[in-house]
Design a protein that fits this description.
Mean pLDDT: 74
Number of domains: 2
Order of helices and strands: EHHEHEHEHHHEEEHEHEEH
Helix content: 25-40%
CATH class of the largest domain: Alpha Beta
CATH topology of the largest domain: Aminopeptidase
Number of strands: 10
Strand order of the largest sheet: 4-5-6-7-8-10-9
Radius of gyration: 21 Å
Distance between the termini: 39 Å
Structural class: alpha+beta
Largest sheet: 7 strands, mixed
Low-confidence stretches: 1-5, 25-37, 43-50, 52-56, 71-83, 85-95, 280-289
Strand content: 15-25%
Number of helices: 10
Bound molecules: coenzyme A
Length: 289
């Protein structure tokens, strides 16, 4: 796909009106879209889905609004309202393509659940770990046997989960008890209530759209639903700017650079008090940590 331009709208109606104006403007250029305009508008209304348009749509946006879409004032609105993404690749668009993306967008909006990793997940997890966007930050993938030992056998100091939205696996997240973690990890931690987390999204195409922030925030909320948990830490590479920004948005603060058995890391912390101060009104149901 080509360059993306992301526009957020305050309401479903505003987004639907935008699509309507857009498809009038591009009539004759995007035959597939024109035919499906009503269906797409209906899908937006029904699902709060993301919409992807391509081709001459960008120029059409400019005509429709008298300005490039990037300068549309609605762009400053929160991105988890309604998002329209306009791509610059004409050939990328087709009816099925648009509808598949609508479905994917819709399936990003449900609640995230965390399912403990089981034997049946190990193969898929190993494949996720080999993906370049994961490998870049997690290093060479563990073998299935190593993951089995980590998540399914032994002391279970580390608990691994598959994050899911309405049954669709979206990523991996693990929590660990920081105190007495062993192997040189967190030797100074004395607090038995300290937890640590590590995570990644499975699909590179879903990075940078707020999904990771949601996943981290909702997982941390689950951890804090256990009254024994006092704080949650995470330790991205100091060069992993996207992850650091994601964790800040999820409620973590930078503590400082630390040396870990995996190398230099930026220790980031989310205290119970800090999280609760910024937590949304509806907390998820209690779950084990
Ligand atoms: C880390 C990860 C879970 C974050 O999830 P995500 O959905 O991509 O993150 P979000 O979209 O919620 O937030 C990312 C933020 O970083 C910003 N960002 C992206 N690239 C950036 C960069 N190079 N420099 C600075 N900020 C960047 C985004 O704009 C966004 O901030 P904004 O909403 O203020 O604009 C996900 O990117 C991932 O799985 N990455 C690969 C594996 C990994 O790095 N795991 C973490 C190991 S510690």
């Amino acid at each position: 796909m080509g360059r993306f331009h992301q526009i957020s709208f305050e309401s479903i109606d505003e987004a639907a009106a935008f699509v309507a104006a857009l498809s009038r403007q591009v009539a004759g250029q995007l035959a597939d879209l024109r035919a499906d305009h009503a269906e797409i508008a209906a899908a937006i209304r029904g699902s709060r889905a993301d919409v992807f348009l391509s081709g001459d749509a960008l120029a059409a946006c400019e005509r429709a609004f008298g300005a490039p879409p990037e300068t549309h004032p609605a762009k400053r609105l929160p991105t988890d309202s309604v998002v329209l993404v306009v791509s610059g690749a004409p050939e990328a668009l087709g009816r099925d393509d648009v509808l598949a993306r609508l479905a994917a967008g819709a399936s990003r909006r449900g609640p995230i659940t965390f399912r403990p990793i089981g034997e049946k997940d190990l193969k898929a997890l190993a494949e996720w770990r080999r993906r370049p966007h994961v490998r870049k930050w997690f290093g060479p993938p563990d073998s299935i046997q190593e993951m089995r030992a980590e998540f399914l056998e032994g002391s279970r100091q580390v608990r691994g989960y598959i994050g899911e939205i309405e049954g669709r696996p979206i990523g991996f997240i693990q929590s660990y008890v920081a105190k007495d973690a062993g192997d040189g990890w967190w030797p100074d931690e004395r607090d038995p209530g300290a937890r640590g987390i590590d995570q990644f999204l499975a699909e590179q195409s879903e990075l940078g759209q707020g999904l990771g922030t949601r996943m981290v925030r909702e997982f941390v909320a689950q951890l804090f639903s256990d009254p024994a948990v006092t704080k949650v830490q995470t330790d991205p590479s100091p060069t992993n700017a996207r992850a650091i920004r994601c964790y800040e948005k999820a409620g973590f603060e930078r503590v400082g650079v630390v040396h870990t058995p995996d190398g230099i890391a930026l220790l980031m912390l989310c205290t119970r008090e800090g999280f609760m101060a910024g937590a949304p009104a509806a907390a998820p149901p209690p779950s084990r940590s």
